[in-house]
Specification:
The protein has 10 helices and 9 strands. Bound molecules: guanosine-5'-triphosphate and magnesium ion.
Length: about 300
């Protein structure tokens, strides 16, 4: 008999949920950046045992914070729905920062949403902690009433990830494998490639720009010469943002394009021609039909 199930990742923005999802899956399913609210869409990452005795489907979710607009409202509702349907909840804390009001808000949300699912707490970024700080962080996590077990980890370095994965696998209910064993993610390739481009934008921009930018891949075409042609638009919400993204003499967009092309080549395993344009689309974050099309629900 095999075991399989769903695990929802919850936690404040920037605590390392996507880094952890990638580490548990063993493949890059979600983009990572040091800008808060990097993740906008729920991404399912699939981890399967080598002997195919279990499978867990990890749903990497946007970091929870107070909704500001239609985009963040949608993100929040999705988190609540996903957690309600999970077989186990992985609650991620930033061990560096202690437990704050944001963490308590999420703890209350988990408790209200699905009290019967086991809640595993991962205290992340322990690579940054001194021994006594680690002890204090683990004790604080253990005091949260809804938390059943606590695991110290460094998602970035991989410390403690194997132990956490083994425990999560034990918590999966009996059931058939839900995805083919070689599959790591459920994202359509247009969206995954758009995310890889957006990751490069996030790395190079600050303040309101990371929140204002969205990327849409228009087409992916394999040419006869083996090169894959990818056309994509980067949207800004204003002309001044567009100017920053293009940069003086087009320098910024060239840098983004070169870095993104390398990422796409690694992902697709072939040479890529990337045609990248910056466009202005005012208030896209409030445009419900557009958010639908982008798969942000
Ligand atoms: N030092 C250290 N940094 C980490 C670790 N895990 C993640 N980070 C960094 O923390 C930042 C945020 O990581 P993400 O994985 O994007 O965080 P997230 O929780 O998915 O953030 P949102 O999608 O915005 O909610 C990135 O700069 C990561 O490299 C870790 O174990 N140690
Ligand atoms: Mg994330």
């Amino acid at each position: 008999m095999t075991r399989s199930g769903f695990i929802g990742l919850a936690g404040r923005p920037n605590v390392g949920k996507s880094t952890l999802a990638n580490a548990l899956v063993g493949s890059k399913v979600a983009i990572v950046s040091d800008r808060p609210q990097t993740t906008r869409r729920a991404v399912r990452g699939v981890a399967t045992a080598r002997d195919e005795s279990w499978q867990m489907v990890l749903t990497d979710l946007p970091g929870v914070q107070k909704p500001r607009d239609v985009l963040t409202e949608r993100m929040q509702r999705r988190v609540e729905r996903e957690l309600a349907e999970s077989d186990a909840i992985l609650f991620v804390l930033n061990g560096e920062q202690g437990i704050g009001p944001g963490d308590r808000f999420i703890a209350a949300m988990i408790e209200a949403g699905k009290p019967e699912a086991p809640v595993i707490c991962a205290v992340n970024k322990i690579d940054r902690l001194k021994r006594h700080e680690l002890v204090a962080a683990l004790a604080a996590a253990g005091e949260l009433e809804m938390v059943d077990e606590v695991f110290p980890i460094s998602a970035r370095r991989g410390t403690g990830v194997a132990e956490l994965r083994a425990r999560l696998a034990e918590l999966m209910p009996d059931g058939p494998l839900l995805y083919p064993a070689g599959e790591h993610s459920d994202l359509p390739s247009e969206i995954h490639l758009a995310e890889l481009i957006r990751e490069q934008v996030l790395r190079r921009t600050r303040e309101e720009i990371p929140h204002a930018v969205e990327v849409e891949v228009e087409s992916i075409d394999g040419r006869a010469d083996g090169i894959v042609e990818v056309r994509a638009d980067i949207w800004a919400e204003s002309l001044s943002q567009k100017k920053i993204l293009v940069g003086r003499g087009g320098r910024m967009i060239r840098e983004i394009g070169t870095a993104a092309r390398r990422e796409l080549e690694r992902e697709l395993g072939s040479k890529v021609f990337l045609d990248l344009r910056v466009r202005v689309r005012e208030h896209w974050r409030r445009d419900e039909s557009l958010l639908d099309r982008l798969g942000i629900d």
